[in-house]
Amino acid sequence: MILALLLIPVIAAVLSLIVRNDILRRIILIATAISHTAITITAWSVEPGALWNGWLMLDKPGLLFLTITSVLFLACSFYAFGYLAGEAKSKKQVFEEEAFFTNAPEAIFCACIEGFLATMTLVTVSQHFGLLWVAMEATTLASAPLIYFHRHNRSLEATWKYLLICSVGIALALLGNFFMVIAATKPASEGTAIVLNALIGQGHNLNIQWLKAAFLFFLVGYGTKMGLAPLHTWLPDAHSEAPSVISALLSGALLNCAFLGILRCYQVCCAAGEAQFCQGLLVLFGLISISWAAIFILGQADYKRMLAYSSVEHVGIMALGVGIGAGATFGAMLHAVNHSIAKAMLFMTAGNIIAIYKTKTTKDVRGILSVAPITGVLWIAGFLAISGIPPFGIFVSEFTIAKAMIEQGRIGIAVAFLGILAVVFVGMSAAFLNMAQGPKNNDLQVKDRPAKAFTILPPIALGAMALMLGLYIPPVVNDLLHSVASAIGGY
Amino acid sequence: MSNTADIIMIFLVLTNLTLLGLSRLGACIRIVALQGVALGFLPLILNDWDMEVHLVLFSIVIISLKGIVFPWMLNRTLRELATQREIEPFIGYGISIIAGTIALVMCMWLSSRLPFPEPLMSPLIVPVAFFTIMSGLFLIISRKKALTQVLGYLVLENGIYAFGVALVRQQPMLVELGILLDIFVAVFVMGIAMFHINREFDHIDTDQLSRLRS
After folding, report:
1. pTM, rounded to two decimals
2. CA nearest B116: which of B163, B47, B77, B157?
3. Cis status, amide bond into A145, omega within 30 of 0
4. Is residue B173 part of a domain?
5. Sequence-distant contacts of A97-100: CB under 8 A, at least 24 apart
6. Given a cut of 60, is residue A250 above it in pLDDT?
7. Which chain A residues have a beta carbon less than 8 Å from that of B157?
8. Is residue B109, in this structure, part of any structural domain at all?
9. Sheet strand arrangement including A150-151
């Protein structure tokens, strides 16, 4: 089953490079996504067997993050179908500059996005830390060409920063891997292999100093990829310059996968009794990320960059939640789900807005509600969902995290957390509401384009999911989230 | 045996310092290649020239990747470029070498304080590995050309590799090959990106990649 999850996207990627017909290639993309999601859903009821001495295994945290990735990919594949059909083959103008560009070949786009899915799947099923590292670096390499899909100098700049910053960050995580091996080595005996379960079993025999050093390097290395401030510098550029469907995948799926990498090391630290050390660091990085993002959201002139900074804010909330521990761990896991859904929906809607208005500048977009009513409603709904307004899911997860803080008597952190959330809300509401309301901008040529089912339905579906998770969390999902939380030291 | 390892470590220190003071890109590529070849012998040396099949295979893969494939790919990119030199780096060559020397001393001090679970083959390995990592990071942040940044990434990777070979005995073959494959593809993709940067901007000065802000 795990093998199928890994091989289907790889085969699809190879096929995409061979097939010459555009339509057929897009159908392969959708078929891959559907079969991947189908197998993932089966894995909820039938636990897939372990492979290669337990190196590949789908445990509860892996299953949660695999499901997020798979469902988002399904939505993105439908969106991509509409998006690719709408992309002109001829030269187009860069919005911000007087320059023209073409797109990368569609075959490369399809192959890379499928390869991206395969590598992210490998991240979620890897139990061996070395293999996890290999998969994590591979996600960077598979997604870099996707950011450079629109071939102009801005996206190239974003791609270069992404490649270099993430590769260096992940190289530091490799050093963390070696530290972990040393932590597991005992004098004059065979050391433990750095497989998650073996390390957790050996918990108290691990060398604490080296383990702490390993966690630091994991946090900095994978934290770069996850977008924790101040290591996030690649993120706003890559998210704003990539095609919107790719931004949705990067933000909703990739950041979570990187978070999983940190959580794996955190699990080992918990087993070794060093949870407190890690929690302090996670809270610190979480608070820095949230505040940093809030500063940049205020007065942000580009709405895709605003969404990117909002991702920095939300990964900060996840790190903060795990750092607070206890009940907040459940909140952080629920937040990962909610954020992925809401952010993917927003990026897809942003893509639709760009298709209509041909600009990424916030102040040039006015009156979406009158120009394209469905997109306008989605934009407002997405804004409410992402800023944690009830009845959307993010309200529940943020509330759970804040509640745990107050229960632990960490009032200072709770006040800072809620205060920054309020600032972000104000900053985002000004931009979002101005874009949605008001008269149509006359000097801007707005093309009245009929809404296409392929680019409208995925964000609607995701929006419905975001709403549902706020009103009612299905018992199976609730159980999974709780067992994930207990696997990473909370409840 | 420990002698040979020490010689390689001293060679690493010297190549790192040379890289910090060198402006010609072609020469930099050759030095990083030499460093890679020297490191390729490290697993064999540390195991007393024990000719186990997987060790020998691994050494061959390392030497051919780091000594032949990477320099070839980077040289190909270099030929396309308008310039052959690193001009006006953020931090000058003289200061770079002085900073490198200070970093070397600090690495020596740091690793003398680290507790290792088992005795090391050569006392030089850990400080030199850390120094190589530092040099790589320094090259990445202090130089402007995209090519030098890729070389810095390779040097950083060489340092991590040296650390891994010295301390991690039972790293499975599959993972090692996976790591190498990733680095190979990384250099490959970075090479393509550099090619595009050169075509789009007519230079590879990363300090001028500054349109995306705030």
Report:
1. 0.92
2. B163
3. no
4. yes
5. A97/A152, A97/A154, A99/A152, A99/A153, A100/A152
6. yes
7. 171
8. yes
9. A92-93, A100-103, A150-151
Is B213 within a domain? no
Confidence label for A66 from pLDDT (cuts 50, 70 and 90): very high
What's the half-sphere exposure (Cβ side, CA atoms, 13 Å) at A335? Answer: 29
Give the number of residues written for chain B. 214
CA-CA distances (angstroms) from residue A91 to A26, A105, A148, A151? 22, 13, 15, 10
Using CA atoms, how far apart are residues A170 and A218, in angstroms rounded to an integer?
8
Residue B26 is part of which domain span? 2-208
- Would you list the domain boundaries of chain A? 283-491
Q: Looking at the 3D structure of chain B, how many domains does it have?
A: 1
- The predicted structure's pLDDT at residue A188: 56
Could you give the CA distance from residue B66 to residue A427 in angstroms, rounded to a whole number? 49
Question: Which pLDDT score is estimated for B92?
Answer: 85
CB count in 10 Å sphere of residue A305 = 23
- Hey, what long-range contacts does A425-431 have (CB within 8 A, 24 or more apart)? A425/A387, A425/A388, A426/A298, A427/A294, A427/A297, A427/A298, A427/A299, A427/A300, A428/A297, A428/A306, A428/A310, A428/A383, A428/A386, A428/A387, A429/A383, A429/A387, A431/A300, A431/A303, A431/A306, A431/A362
- Put simply, the answer to whether B164 touches A178 (Cβ < 8 Å) is yes
Residues A490/A400, Cβ–Cβ less than 8 Å? no
- Asked if A481 and A260 touch (Cβ cutoff 8 Å), the reply is no
Measured CA to CA, the distance from residue A143 to residue A250 in angstroms comes to 8
**CB pairs below 8 Å between A and B: how many?**
116
Residue with tokens 């999974």: A480
- Under an 8 A CB cutoff, do B172 and A209 touch? no
The SS3 call for residue A128 is strand
Handedness of CA A176, A180, A181, A183 (dihedral sign): positive
The type of residue at A29 is L
CA distance B202 to chain A (A): 11
Contact A141 B167 (CB under 8 A): no
**Strand boundaries in A105-207, DSSP class E:** 150-151
Contact B179 A296 (CB under 8 A): no
- Token pair 């995409």: residue: A16
What ipTM was estimated for this complex?
0.89
**Within a domain: B198:** yes
Confidence of residue A441 (pLDDT cuts 50, 70, 90): low
d(CA B8, CA B58): 18
Give just the sign of the alpha carbon dihedral A196, A210, B14, B80: positive
One-letter amino acid at B18 equals T
Confidence of residue A189 (pLDDT cuts 50, 70, 90): low
| B3/chain A closest Cα distance in angstroms | 24
